[in-house]
């Protein structure tokens, strides 16, 4: 999997917070969103589950996001997706894998699944190949396929699915990026734009998730309720929207579970906000199939 959340001792200094939040959320009042997620069922009977494809730069916290979502939904800390504990610039994810979230009754799973891929890197022959992500969008990548940064999947390869079902294709694409990282290099941004254009051509909706906000902003680290008053977080979201093209209201800041051993209502609020949008967007697309 990709790099995990590694928390620095002291976040860098941050600009003062805004007096009025730039987005309204109901902090800690998570019951309705949690009920919605737990009772969700795809309307299209040909689709057993909404497939969510996560992609992003190495170290953005894709695997940790999967673990955080699973923890919030299952109401306990769980680690279904292996994640690296350091900030390595080499992707930990090597294979295409589907992650499910188990319901309370054993053997049953929630009708939404996550696919993690190798991280994006600058230059050619490094990180996941953009062509592999494009194939995954259409459901052509078989479970367990090992990514090759130099040579993308072809129809003659064993890992190629020639006739994907409505379940195999992606219903919503999620791009993760770190608030704690420096400016993305041009090559990575170009790959993100290519992936976005491919998804748009297929009609697949897209969402972005800004991770590690507590590591990047001292005011947010002090109190997560400052997230939507933070000038730094707002600027990060506006900058990404301008460079990649994802609308501002489709970008969600989150703090993944990292060092915590217990659940936190405010952390859950941000994760559930992103998850509900992911499900809603995926449901709308699945109903077009």
UniProtKB/TrEMBL annotation:
Q: Which InterPro entries match?
A: P-loop_NTPase (IPR027417)
Gene Ontology BP terms: immune response
The ranges of region (Disordered) come to: 1-24
Give the Gene3D superfamilies listed for this entry: P-loop containing nucleotide triphosphate hydrolases
Domain of life, source organism: Eukaryota
Biased segments, Pro residues type: 9-18
The molecule here is called Interferon-induced protein 44-like
Record lineage = Eukaryota, Metazoa, Chordata, Craniata, Vertebrata
> What gene is behind this protein?
LOC114426651
């Amino acid at each position: 999997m990709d790099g995990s959340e590694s928390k620095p001792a002291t976040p860098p200094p941050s600009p003062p917070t805004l007096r009025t939040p730039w987005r309204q959320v109901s902090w800690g009042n998570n019951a309705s969103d949690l009920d919605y997620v737990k009772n969700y069922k795809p309307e299209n009977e040909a689709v057993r589950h909404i497939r969510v494809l996560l992609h992003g730069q190495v170290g953005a916290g894709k695997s940790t996001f999967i673990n955080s979502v699973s923890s919030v939904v299952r109401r306990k800390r769980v680690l279904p997706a292996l994640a690296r504990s350091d900030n390595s610039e080499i992707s930990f994810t090597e294979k295409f894998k589907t992650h499910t979230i188990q319901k309370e009754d054993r053997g049953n799973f929630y009708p939404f699944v996550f696919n993690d891929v190798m991280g994006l890197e600058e230059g050619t022959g490094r990180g996941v190949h953009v062509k592999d992500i494009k194939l995954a969008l259409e459901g052509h990548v078989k479970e367990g396929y090992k990514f090759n940064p130099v040579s993308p999947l072809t129809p003659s390869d064993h890992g190629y699915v020639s006739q994907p079902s409505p379940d195999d294709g992606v219903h919503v694409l999620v791009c993760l990026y770190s608030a704690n990282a420096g400016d993305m290099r041009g090559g990575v941004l170009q790959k993100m734009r290519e992936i976005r254009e491919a998804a748009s051509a297929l009609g697949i909706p897209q969402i972005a998730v800004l991770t590690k906000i507590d590591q990047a902003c001292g005011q947010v680290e002090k109190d997560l309720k400052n997230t939507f008053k933070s000038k730094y977080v707002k600027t990060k979201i506006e900058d990404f929207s301008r460079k990649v093209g994802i609308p501002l209201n489709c970008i969600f800041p989150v703090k993944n579970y990292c060092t915590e051993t217990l659940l936190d209502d405010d952390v859950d609020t941000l994760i559930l906000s992103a998850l509900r949008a992911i499900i809603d967007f995926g449901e709308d697309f699945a109903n077009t199939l």
